[in-house]
Design goal:
By secondary structure, the chain is an alpha/beta fold. It has 3 domains: 115 residues, Glucose Oxidase, domain 1 (3-Layer(bba) Sandwich), CATH 3.50.30.10; 111 residues, Enzyme I, Chain A, domain 2 (Orthogonal Bundle), CATH 1.10.274.10; 331 residues, TIM Barrel. The strands form 2 sheets. An 8-stranded mixed beta sheet has the order 1-8-7-3-4-5-6-2. Strands 15-14-13-12-11-10-9-16 form an 8-stranded parallel beta sheet. β7 and β8 form a beta hairpin. α1 packs antiparallel against α3 and α12 packs parallel to α14.
Length: 601
C-alpha cells in the first residue's frame, strides 16, 4: 500500500529506486561495498565469525554449573539454533554475494528483515525471541570486529550499467542517520538518493549529500521503521517528501520530472565556459568546496575558478583508529593542488568535533572526554591547539604542498586573540622545521573563518593579522541563533534570512573590502541561487560552494547588475522580514526562488 513520509529537503531533484536500509545498532557497524573478487573472502569472514560465536555458546553451555536453572541451557540452545538458521547466516551471505555489502552491513540488513518478521508474529512468546536474535547478531558483529576486517576505503566507481554493486536496479539509502564518514563511503557508489530519520539542512551529512548532487530528505522521523528492504521509493528532494510503493501513475509523473531535471542540468552545463561576469562588468570568483583530493577534477569540470574550501577533516575519518601521517596528508594536498592545474586551493585545517567526530574522539592521539554539547566543545582550532604535534604535522604537510601550486591556509573557529597568536606561532614553527630539514615550500596566505558572532564583531583584530577571511554561514547562523543545525526538532528556526545574521555578514564583507582584504562566503548560503543577488548587493565577489551549484549561481549573477543591487541593500537589512523584502523587490512570492534579477525590478 502506498504511503508518504515527510521530512526536510536538503538536496533537490527526484530519485527513484529500491530501498536499502542501514539499520541502527548498539554495535557500531561500518558500511561499504566490496569488489567482486573479494566476495569469497568476505563470506569466509562471516563464516569464521559464526563458527567462533558457536564455539563461545557451546563453551558457555558446557561450563554451566550443575545447579544452574534449566532455562539457561534452553536459552543457549535457542541462540545456537538462531545462529545456525539459514534465515540468518544464509540470507546474509546472499546480501554479500548479490549486493556486495561488507559482512557487518549485510548482517545488520538481514537482522532488519528478520526482526520485522518477528514483530508480525501473533504469538507473544515468538515475538519476544527477537531480543534473542538481536543478541546473537551483536555477538556476530563483535566477532567480526575481532577478526581481520577489510580496510575501509571508498568503493570503486560503478560501471556505467550500474551492475558492479548492488545489482542492476537503482537503489536509495534509508537510515536513521548517516555519519559524514559513512557518507564518504557512499560518495562514489550506486545510490541515487537517501533518506534519514534525523538531521538538519546544514548538518555535515547534508552538506556531503549536496556535494554528491543527489536528491535527499532528512528529518523524516519514522522512515527507517516504516520503509522495508527493497520497497520501491520515490524521493522528492524539492518537496521533502518520500513516497513508498507509488502507484504507476505517480511513478510515471516522477519519471517525467526526472527527465525535465536532467534537461535543465544539461542546459546549465553549457554555462561552464562562460566567464562569471555581471552585466556591469564585475568579475565574480566562483570557487568549489571539496572533501577529498579526488573531488578536485569534478570542480574543474564544473567550471570552478579554484577551491575555496578543502575540508581536510575528511582525511581523518574512516581510518579505524589511526590518524593520517604527515606524508599521507602531503600527498593528498599535493594531489588536489596539482589537479586544479594552477588554480588556487584553500585548505582548511582540521575541523573535527560537533557532528564530525573521529572514532568517538578517542583513537590514536585523541584522549578527550565526551562533552554534552560538542558544537560548543573542543572542536576545530581549539582541538588543533590542544594537539600541537598533530597540528604541526598538518601545517607542515600543507606548506609542503604549496611548492606545487597556489595554496592558501584557512583556520576555523578562531575567536580569541590568544588563539590567533598561538596559531601563527605554530605556523612559524612548522616553517622553521621545514627550513631546518631543507624541505621546499611556497608562499602561503593565511586566512580566518568567520563563523562565530564574536569573530564577526571584532573584525579589526582579524584584519590586522590575516590576509583574507572566509565567512562560514552554516556555523555563523547556528551560533547567532543558538540552534543546533543538526537537530530536526529546531530546524524550522534555522533562518538564513534572519536580520541579525544578514547584518553580521554584510558588516564582515564591508570591513574586509574597506581594508583591502579578500573575503568570501563558503557556507551553504553561497550555493543558494536565492541568495546570490543579496550577497552581490553586500559587495561579495567570491563565492565558494559545491561544484554542482556553480552553474545555477552563475546563471543568476550573469543577469545581475551590481550598480543597481547595492542601493537596495539598506531596504533589505532594515526590513523586519528581509526575505519578504527581497521577494517584493524580485516580484516573487516569499520563500520562492525568483527567476529574474533585482535589476529588472
Amino acid at each position: 500500500m502506498s504511503f508518504q513520509v515527510f521530512g526536510l529537503s536538503i538536496s533537490r531533484g527526484v530519485a527513484i529506486g529500491k530501498a536499502v536500509l542501514v539499520a541502527s545498532s548498539r554495535v557500531d557497524v561500518a558500511h561499504y561495498f566490496i569488489p567482486d573478487a573479494q566476495v569469497p573472502l568476505e563470506v569466509a569472514r562471516l563464516c569464521e565469525a559464526r563458527d567462533a560465536v558457536g564455539e563461545e555458546l557451546e563453551t558457555l553451555k558446557r561450563d554451566l554449573p550443575a545447579d544452574a536453572p534449566g532455562e539457561l541451557a534452553a536459552l543457549l540452545d535457542v541462540h545456537l539454533m538462531l545462529l545456525r538458521d539459514e534465515l540468518l547466516t544464509g540470507a546474509t551471505i546472499c546480501w554479500i554475494s548479490e549486493r556486495h555489502y561488507n559482512a557487518e552491513w549485510a548482517l545488520s540488513a538481514q537482522l532488519e528483515v528478520v526482526a520485522r518478521q518477528f514483530d508480525e508474529m501473533e504469538d507473544a512468546y515468538l515475538r519476544e525471541r527477537k531480543a534473542d536474535l538481536e543478541q546473537v547478531v551483536e555477538r556476530l558483529l563483535r566477532a567480526l570486529a575481532r577478526g581481520a576486517a577489510v580496510p575501509l576505503a571508498p568503493p570503486p566507481a560503478p560501471a556505467s550499467d550500474g551492475g558492479d554493486f548492488g545489482g542492476e536496479e537503482p537503489l536509495v539509502l534509508i537510515a536513521n542517520d548517516i555519519a559524514p564518514a559513512d557518507m564518504l563511503q557512499f560518495k562514489r557508489s550506486v545510490f541515487t538518493g537517501f533518506v534519514t530519520d534525523v538531521g538538519g539542512k546544514t548538518s555535515h551529512t547534508a552538506i556531503v549529500a549536496r556535494s554528491m548532487d543527489i536528491p535527499a530528505v532528512v528529518g523524516a522521523r519514522e522512515a527507517s521503521r516504516l520503509i522495508q528492504q527493497d520497497d520501491w521509493v520515490v524521493i522528492d528532494g524539492d518537496a521533502g517528501v518520500v513516497i513508498v510503493d507509488p502507484s504507476p501513475i505517480v511513478l510515471e509523473e516522477y519519471r517525467f520530472r526526472q527527465r525535465q531535471i536532467q534537461l535543465e542540468r544539461e542546459r546549465l552545463a553549457r554555462l561552464r565556459h562562460t566567464p562569471a561576469v555581471t552585466l556591469d562588468g564585475e568579475r565574480i570568483d566562483l570557487l568549489a568546496n571539496i572533501e577529498l583530493p579526488q573531488d578536485a577534477p569534478g570542480a574543474l569540470v564544473a567550471g570552478a575558478a579554484g577551491v575555496g574550501l578543502f575540508r581536510s577533516e575528511f582525511l581523518f575519518m574512516n581510518r579505524g583508529g589511526a590518524l593520517p601521517s604527515e606524508d599521507e596528508q602531503f600527498e593528498a594536498y599535493r594531489a588536489a593542488v596539482e589537479a586544479m592545474q594552477g588554480l588556487p586551493v584553500t585548505i582548511r585545517t582540521v575541523d573535527i568535533g560537533a557532528d564530525k567526530p573521529i572514532d568517538r574522539m578517542t583513537v590514536g592521539e585523541l584522549r578527550h572526554a565526551h562533552t554534552l554539547n560538542p558544537a560548543l566543545g573542543l572542536r576545530a582550532i581549539r582541538w588543533s591547539l590542544s594537539e600541537p604535534g598533530m597540528f604541526r604535522k598538518q601545517l607542515r604537510a600543507i606548506l609542503r604542498a604549496s611548492a606545487f601550486g597556489k595554496v592558501r591556509l584557512l583556520i576555523p573557529m578562531l575567536v580569541h586573540a590568544g588563539e590567533i597568536r598561538q596559531t601563527f606561532e605554530a605556523i612559524a614553527r612548522a616553517r622553521r622545521q621545514l627550513d631546518d630539514a631543507g624541505v621546499p615550500y611556497g608562499e602561503v596566505e593565511v586566512g580566518a573563518m568567520i563563523e562565530v558572532p564574536a569573530a564577526a564583531l571584532q573584525m579589526p583584530l582579524f584584519l590586522k593579522h590575516f590576509d583574507f577571511v572566509s565567512i562560514g554561514t552554516n556555523d555563523l547562523i547556528q551560533y547567532t541563533l543558538a540552534i543546533d543545525r543538526a537537530d530536526e526538532a529546531v530546524s524550522h528556526l534555522y533562518d538564513v534570512w534572519h536580520p541579525a545574521v544578514l547584518r553580521l555578514i554584510a558588516d564582515v564583507i564591508r570591513q574586509a573590502r574597506e581594508a583591502g582584504r579578500g573575503v568570501s562566503v563558503c557556507g551553504e548560503m553561497a550555493g543558494d541561487p536565492a541568495c546570490t543577488e543579496l550577497l552581490l548587493a553586500m559587495g561579495l565577489r567570491s563565492f565558494s560552494m559545491h561544484p554542482s551549484r556553480i552553474a545555477a549561481v552563475k546563471q543568476r549573477l550573469l543577469r545581475a547588475d551590481t550598480r543597481k543591487l547595492a542601493p537596495l541593500l539598506g531596504q533589505i537589512l532594515d526590513a523586519e522580514s528581509p526575505e519578504a523584502m527581497c521577494a517584493q523587490l524580485l516580484r516573487a512570492e516569499p520563500g520562492k526562488t525568483a527567476s529574474r534579477s533585482l535589476l529588472t525590478a
